[in-house]
Design a protein that fits this description.
The protein is α+β, with helices and mostly antiparallel strands. It contains 12 helices and 19 strands.
């Protein structure tokens, strides 16, 4: 990309968001606070982002007529998730509409094999990986990867969906059968000691790095993050250097989350890239001078990058649906969180819940990450997700 300016859009310009979930909701919060008008497109009635926006267009993401309507009513477009028909975004770009990040970037990131291949070619450290054509190839790859691997759908897949960890030959056929309807790749199972991520904003003027977050997952779902990560300054510098190389390789404007594995020797490997705000960056709302959501709004409206300075150590815990509540719900015990100093509760406005569904999060600030994590954990345990039918 030749360096070019992004058209500066003063409020009340119109921002269009493809996707109406919680990330879009938090984008809309900051856009509205800054004086912009927000229109979202989502097929679900009263979507979380639609609740706090000026308008929601209710239509499927593959509805080109609806996408054109969103584009025509907006001065700039962005998206809150990457599982969109990239060809349709390309059509809108060809018609002259501004979209950040671009369809070209989304096309590269959507396919995990294409994404990893581009990073590898650029000299960015990634786990070993191979395309999988059939079951026989997968068995051979298993041996090449020392008897441990992760089988992945190249497209789609999130929160553990579309992945299978294989540590024994007896698991290969079942995993292949489960995922074989998709294009597949096999990746080495990394013996990491930490999973970390960094949010990076890039506009025509430069790059802004957020602090490195240390993330804990269960069944591939993010449970909590602490910031700053407990890593050496040398490891942090390697992460920032690699992240900078990634966004320069992408060569586009927007907000990107880059996930890394860190091994016992401090070596780093890029796991995946998200071309949008990320769950592990929720902490930035209260934890940084400029949240990741405000940063994206600044970028796509041609405004200066904001400071990413960390105000204090912090911890973010996801509020997930419980095993015994399906459907309409309410949260009991919010007053317990509101009594805690510098502890912040976010509920996403989702009408229904189910086990492990992300319905909110809690961020706590403290003098140390340990203090912040303890406060956030206490806050999480002080509330309950209950069925709407239960007595309040």
């Amino acid at each position: 990309m030749k360096v070019k300016g992004i058209k500066r859009l003063a409020p009340p310009a119109n921002i269009g968001i493809v996707g109406g979930g919680q990330l879009g909701r938090m984008m809309a919060y900051d856009a509205k606070r800054m004086g912009y008008n927000v229109i979202v497109l989502d097929p679900k009635a009263n979507a979380p982002a639609g609740q706090v926006s000026d308008r929601q267009i209710r239509a499927d993401f593959s509805d080109i007529t609806a996408l054109r309507e969103l584009a025509a009513k907006s001065d700039v477009l962005t998206y809150e998730f990457e599982h969109i028909d990239v060809e349709l975004l390309g059509v809108l770009e060809n018609e002259g509409y501004a979209i950040y990040p671009s369809a070209r970037t989304l096309r590269m990131i959507q396919n995990k094999f294409v994404q990893k291949s581009a990073l590898q070619k650029a000299g960015i450290p990634v786990p070993r990986f191979y395309p999988v054509g059939n079951l026989e190839e997968l068995i051979e790859i298993f041996d090449k990867l020392d008897g441990k691997m992760v089988l992945k759908s190249c497209t789609g897949g999130y929160d553990g969906k579309g992945n299978a960890i294989i540590k024994d030959k007896s698991q290969i056929e079942e995993a292949y059968t489960m995922l074989s309807s998709d294009e597949l790749m096999a990746e080495e199972f990394v013996d990491y000691i930490k999973e970390v991520s960094i949010i990076v904003g890039k506009n025509h003027e430069g790059i802004a790095f957020y602090p490195v977050a240390e993330n804990t997952h269960k069944d591939s779902i993010l449970i909590h993050s602490v910031i700053p990560a407990d890593i050496t300054s040398e490891t942090e510098e390697r992460i920032r250097e690699a992240a900078g190389k990634v966004v320069r390789e992408i060569d586009d404007y927007g907000l990107f989350c880059i996930e890394f594995f860190v091994d016992a020797k401090g070596n780093i490997l890029v796991n995946e890239i998200a071309p949008r705000p990320h769950n592990s960056g929720h902490y930035s709302i209260e934890g940084c001078i400029t949240s990741q959501y405000e940063q994206l709004i600044r970028i796509i409206t041609g405004m200066p990058l904001g400071s990413t300075k960390l105000r204090a150590s912090c911890a973010m815990y996801n509020l997930l649906g419980s095993d015994n509540v399906h459907g309409a719900y309410y949260i009991e015990g919010i007053e317990n969180i509101l009594q805690m100093e510098d502890c912040h509760f976010h509920l996403y406005g989702k009408a229904d819940t189910m086990p492990l569904k992300k319905i909110g999060h809690i961020t706590a600030l403290g003098e140390t990450t340990e203090a912040a994590a303890l406060k956030a954990k206490q806050a999480l345990y002080s509330i309950q997700v209950k069925s709407m039918g239960e007595d309040k």
